[in-house]
Here is the input.
Amino acid sequence: MSSAALVPSRSRVIAFALSLAAVLVLAEIAARVAGFGEPPLVILDDEIEYYLVPHREYHRFGKTYRINGHSMRSDDIGGANGSPGSTFAILGDSVVYGPGIDQDATVAKRLQNMLRARRPPPAEAIAHGSARGGDIHVLSIAASSWGPENILAFYRRFGPFSGNTAWIVQSSHDMADVMRRPSEPPPYRSAPPMGALHDALSGVVGAIAARLRPATLPAADDAADRAHAEAALVGLIERLKKDYGRVVLVFHATKHEALSKVSEGDTHFRRIAGRTGIDYLSMLGPYSAAYQAGTPPHFDDIHLNESGARLLARLLNASMDTARSGNRH
Here is the structure.
């Protein structure tokens, strides 16, 4: 057989190229239909680690994500500060950010709607002449995997966001959640993908790499980490006390904690609230009751589903009517 016979004909090369192109186009369409293509993006930062790119809207897996001009997943409020009586804030991590939850179903958006529908509006809003419901805004100062140090660094950089009430949502893992150098890769992309297929493949490769990546971080010193995390949380509380009329520390229980009704984090954060003289709200009991009622609030061990986000927003709204002396539960 001659060597010329072993060389693919031009028509075969063209047919193969067209077939490959068709496969890639179909794969791109399938990946886009599945929800890939628009991952939320962050800006990497030496002090904050990362924060959401402002002025963006994403549509991913059937959910809408809108990031306002202050890098928050909440409605815009124009300037950096709203009226002291009509601006509220929820600070935290992915529990507040709401991965897998549509924009209108997030805790911040639900709470904003509840506060706007109040009759009468919060007393502080009336006192400041901002009783109209449309003037009330709830800020979501949060990003996935943020700990107290991240939140404090972000608030120092972009705050203050003075207002009525600030709720700080913390989970048991936040007791020792500190920033490290070098840090682990953030749970977001810092650059847009070249398409939906690239987005999907990057996610798969990233997941595999995370499993295969050797542990390069130093072993955690739990006592030291707890001290740093607590110091950052106390610093955040003291800063917010200057900018808000009321600060509430909220404990978010995991699924395991809610089912067992036991949590070290509940005791830990209750102590910090007492030490700093702010209100405390534990979701351990309400989440446990939700499981008993057959309406689980989590979609995995830690993150809230839409029912859980509704429950948390409802109790934050109810806490507006609770006297400080009676909110230690």
Residues 108 and 138 are 6 Å apart (CA to CA). The chain has twelve helices and nine strands. The first strand starts at residue 42 and ends at 45. Residues 125-131, 323-329 have pLDDT under 50 and may be disordered.
